[in-house]
Amino acid sequence: MNSDRYRVKSGRRVSLQDWATDDDGGYSKEEGKALLSSLKSELAEWQERLYAESKQALLIVLQARDAGGKDGTVKHVIGAFNPNGVQIANFKVPSEEELAHDFLWRVHAKVPRRGNIGVFNRSHYEDILVTRVHALIDDKTAEQRSKDIRNFEFLLIDSRTQIIKFYLHISPEEQRQRLQERLNDPTKHWKFNEGDLAERVKWPEYTSAYEDAFATSTKDAPWYVIPADHKWFRDLLIAQVILDRLKEMNPEYPVSTFDPKEIKIPNVKEQ
Ligand code: AMP
Ligand code: MG
Fold first, then answer.
1. What's the gap between Cα 159 and its chain centre?
2. 102 CA distance to ligand 2 middle (Å)
C-alpha cells in the first residue's frame, strides 16, 4: 500500500474538507484485517532490531478529536510491539507545576530513549490546539509556539529520534455515533466525558487549529492525515507508515565483540 498520499507535504496548506474520513484504500475489512496481522509481525521484528541496536529512537505522535481512535490505535497497532521497548505518554491538562515552565518542558521529559519507540497520546500539539480553540493563547503566541515546536523537533531529529505525526480524521457523524455508543453501553460509560460535547460543538474551530498545526509538517517530521471512520483501515494505514519508517531507519543488530567459537559455557552442578 502506498501511504504517501496521506502525508502532508511540507509547505502545502491542508484543507481538511478535501481529505476523506471514510477511505478504505480499496480493501475489504477482511483483507485489511489479514494484512494488518502480517504487518504486525513485521513491526515486531523491526522493533527488536531497533531495540538491539539502541542508536536511534522513533517518536509517534497521535492527535485526534474526542473518540477519534487514539486509544484504539495504541491497543491495535502499538500492541504489536514488545512493551519493554515502548514508552507511552498521555498528555492531560497541564498541572500547576507544568504550567510554571515552558510548554515543552513536560514533553521533552517523555521523549523515548534510543532503542525505544515512544508514543504520545496527545502531545505538545495540544499547546497550539485546545489552547487556541479556548483562547488561552493569542495568535502571536501560537505562531511562536509553532516555531518552537519545529525547532524542538529538529533537535530530536539531530539526536537520532525520528518523528511521525498522525491526525486521526473522523467525520462529525462518526464522532456522534461513537459518543452515542459510549452512552448506550454501560461498559463504555467510563469513556464518556460530558466535556467532550463542549469540544464537539467547536468542530470548525478545531478544524482550523489543526489546519494551522499541519504547517509543522516537514520531510523528517511529517504529519499524516489518516482516514479514521473505518477503525480497521486506520490501524492498517498507521501500521504501514510506521513499518515503512522503521525500514528506512534500518536499525541493525550490533556486531558482537567476541568470537562465539572461542567461548565455552562452563558446566555447573545443581547443588
Ligand atoms: P483525554 O485524552 O480524553 O484523557 O483528555 C485529556 C484532556 O487534556 C483533553 O481534554 C485535552 O484537551 C487536555 N489537554 C492535553 N494537553 C493539554 C494542554 N497542553 N493544554 C490544555 N489542555 C490539554
Ligand atoms: Mg477524552
1. 19
2. 24
Task: Determine contact, residues 103/127, Cβ cutoff 8 Å.
Answer: yes
* Ligand 1 atom closest to residue 90's alpha carbon, by position in its atom list: 2
For ligand 1, pick from 91, 101, 132 the residue to mutate: most ligand atoms within 8 Å of CB. Answer: 91
pTM of the model: 0.97
pLDDT band at residue 271, thresholds of 50, 70 and 90? confident
Average pLDDT, the chain: 97
- Mapping DSSP onto H, E and C, the string for 132-165 reads HHCCCCCHHHHHHHHHHHHHHHHHHHHCCEEEEE
Sign, CA dihedral 65-155-251-222, equals: positive
Q: Does residue 159 have a pLDDT over 90?
A: yes
Which domains, from first to last, does the chain contain? 3-251 (3.40.50.300)
| Cα 142 from Cα 108, distance rounded (Å) | 19
